[in-house]
Specification:
Oligomer: single chain
Number of helices: 11
Number of domains: 2
Structural class: mainly alpha
Distance between the termini: 46 Å
Helix content: over 70%
Low-confidence stretches: 1-5
Strand content: under 5%
Length: 210
């Protein structure tokens, strides 16, 4: 089955798939064009029919990652409806489960490894990490928490503080979770820590456990 799927992929798709696999294992600098083309089964010259250079392959990978990550956050125009129909607990747990589903997808898991490896070397990786992941997530949570406060479902703390207090510990725990998975180690303890963090946060920001 996998062979048939691979055979149906275009050469450009195969180059991307192989590059994602190799970059996630060795880092961008540790992989040569020759190694990529050998894995794909094409001549080195053929790669340049699809990408200008290895850097453009990495840029394409980051573009795909950005698109996949953006799917984790619902459009802002739907936020009012989502908040009105949700408790704070439901909202946070749904976000947690959505992220787990996202990160546990084999390709997305590799995207995250590449991002972690490259974010000090590659400006685009830093931009994604700082703007899409950190700022984008915090901004979204600020808006959501503001709406929960307006509906009387959360205590009226500053929303930027609420978003930071909630999300920054999760950023750290997500990184630990990814590293444990990479090494094939048990993740149950860090998963429980994430759930405990959510419950701890809820106990401090809701009048009752909404």
């Amino acid at each position: 089955m996998q062979t048939n799927l691979t055979e149906k992929m275009s050469t450009k798709e195969k180059i991307l798939q192989v590059s994602i696999n190799l970059f996630s294992q060795k880092g961008y600098s540790g992989v040569s064009v020759r190694e990529i083309t050998r894995e794909v089964g094409i001549k080195e010259s053929s790669l340049y029919n699809h990408f200008k250079n290895k850097e453009e392959i990495l840029e394409s990978i980051f573009s795909i990652f950005r698109e996949e990550f953006s799917k984790l956050v619902p459009p802002f125009e739907f936020l009012d409806e989502i908040i009105s129909k949700s408790t704070v607990e439901d909202f946070l747990l749904r976000g947690y489960e959505n992220f787990r589903t996202h990160i546990n997808h084999p390709v997305n898991e590799k995207f995250w490894r590449i991002l972690y490896i490259e974010h000090y070397r590659e400006p685009l990786a830093r931009e994604i990490f700082l703007n899409d992941i950190i700022k984008g997530t915090i901004d979204f949570l600020e808006s959501a928490f503001e709406k929960f406060i307006q509906l009387g479902k959360m205590k009226a703390y500053p929303t930027k503080l609420l978003a930071s207090e909630y999300q920054y510990p999760l950023f750290s725990m997500h990184a630990e979770y990814n590293m444990l998975r990479f090494d094939g180690k048990d993740t149950s303890e860090i998963e429980q820590k994430m759930k405990d963090h959510i419950q701890f946060f809820l106990e401090h920001v809701t009048e009752t456990k909404n």
